[in-house]
Amino acid sequence: MTEAITDTQDINTQAAAYCPVCETEVHGTVVLSYDSEVFGKRYDLLRCPECGTGICVPQLTDDDLETYYTEEEVVGAGLYEKWLKKYRYIHDWIVPFTGGRGRAAELGCNSANQLRYFHERGWDVLGFEFSKECQEYAKRVNDVEVTGTMLAQFNAEHPEQTFDLFLLIHTFEHITNPAALLADLKQALASDGLLYIEVPNVDSWSYDWLGEFDNVARLPFHSYIYTQQSLRQLLQRCGYEVVAERPYSMKEDGGLLTRSLEQSLRFRLQRRLGRNIVSRAIGTVLKWIIRFYPNRLLITKLAGQRGKSASFAILARPLPP
Fold first, then answer.
1. Less Cβ crowding at N or C end of the chain, within 10 Å?
2. Which CATH architecture has domain 84-199+227-246?
3. Could you read off the pLDDT of 283-308 as tens digits, one per residue?
4. In a 10 Å sphere around its CB, with 0-12 CB exposed, 13-18 middle and 19+ buried, how is residue 244 labelled?
5. CB neighbour class for 248 (10 Å; exposed up to 12, middle 13-18, buried from 19)
6. φ and ψ at 244, to 5 degrees?
């Protein structure tokens, strides 16, 4: 997907939007504005002044999302072994809270690489994914069953089937009605089941450093971009108990944060000095200083401590009715 940034004349103006965390229409400041070549219209990003959630205005319709993601290509094809540390990191953080193996599902599973990792360790797994290409890849390569059925429809057709763990890995930010989805997930989870949500952080240093160049926004596909506090607040309001939270670790976040800082400094150098041998030389020196392992470790550690990691995850359990 290629997106063109609009003229910034409308940035810092006020706009109104519905905030799902605060459950009300809010008036906030437009901080980004994009012309979408995919949908042929402009989309703005504003921040809720109460909870800080980033809100895409206007929202994509369910038909827009279904049409786009039905044709989505496989992400991570042939990269299972290369990305094994990431899959292990997620699995090993969750499992101590589950009490053992069980039945796991993932919404928006794409290639189902993560589910494959759980399946190889004794879990019964099921993926939910619109894309037929992804469904076929998941079965052929990863031996994981994936359905294109909407979760609400699945619940209605299979009320006897529940899950001990439901994964949403960089999926929840795409959802236009998060409260309704959380209700469907609660119905799909066993009484002691766990919900794992991993999302980009609108308060991240990568977003602060790169602004419109950062992938956190990714308008209009990211409907709502949460802070760690605002997602926690939404989960609690929708009847979940937060069990654990974590920022991305050095293994997962260090490269992204340091690349963001490096790119941010390079953009600023080029704006000030122009694209010439001096700015390139300074940029190269800064790049290697930033990528030096102890510096990466320090940047990531500080980001996690201050709630500025590029992404974060929350593990929650549905409360009894």
1. C
2. 3-Layer(aba) Sandwich (3.40)
3. 677 666 666 656 556 666 666 656 67
4. middle
5. buried
6. -160, 155
